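Sample intake — P22 coat protein-protein 5 domain protein
Collected from: Glaciibacter psychrotolerans
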Amino acid sequence: MTLANFTPIIWNSQMLMDFRQIAIAASLVNREYEGDARSGNTVRVNTAGAIAIKDYKAGVKESAPGVKIPRSTAPDAITSTKADLLIDQEKSFDFLIDDIDRAQAAGSLESYTRSAAEGMAEDADKFILNALSTTNAHQTASAVTSGELAFDVIGKLRLVLNKAKVPQGNRVCVINAEFESQLLKAASRITNVDQSGSAEGLRNANVGRLLGFDVYVSENLPNVAKPQAVAWYKPSFSFVSQIEKTEGLRDTDSFSDRLRGLHVYGAKAFRPAGIAAFTAS
């Protein structure tokens, strides 16, 4: 058997499709800067500063010192903030397949690509959730031993975002199993959401809607021993990801083909004020 017919693009596209269906956190952040991600690349993002809103009726221009011309306006210089997102994470996969050509011909890629995607999704979600949970100051730790206390924590996270004037839409909250077990005691407060059209991973992880947040559960948060919750405004945190290399080889130690590849990614909080976290005492 030769690997003459091995087609990396088939495997890459299927693994990325599976990755996006399985991943939770990676599907709840900004992906607009993905582009042509490569290891070591830097994505430079310019963020516009605050734009002043003026009283047009009173006017801005002056005919004399202190005398404004009604219904006049003048442009302001906007200072943009530059920030870099470094693609500095490199994770590989390397596994054996009885016959790559036969697998491709039979269309039986799913079991292989999905298994690889599950591993990549778990790794990426852990990276993202760890970064999110440490981006902004944690709320004061307290015990969460009831549904009401869990509900109150979500309320405090909402307050943090509201105080920071974070937009009301596109808000999500990811909790761990310990937090979920308490929150479900206040199930009457949770609103079911229409999940039609959602990716499978998000459907399975979705708890419901609460206080303006779409709530998801994941054991990829940094702390799984104590109730933990991280809430954010989706555009606040950016993630880029790509399968940079995939190649098929003939294994020298068995009658098998070998498939290996490199998954590269990076992330950055461009708007830290749009993130809030809590870990129970």
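Post-analysis note: Confidence is low (pLDDT under 50) at residues 193-198.
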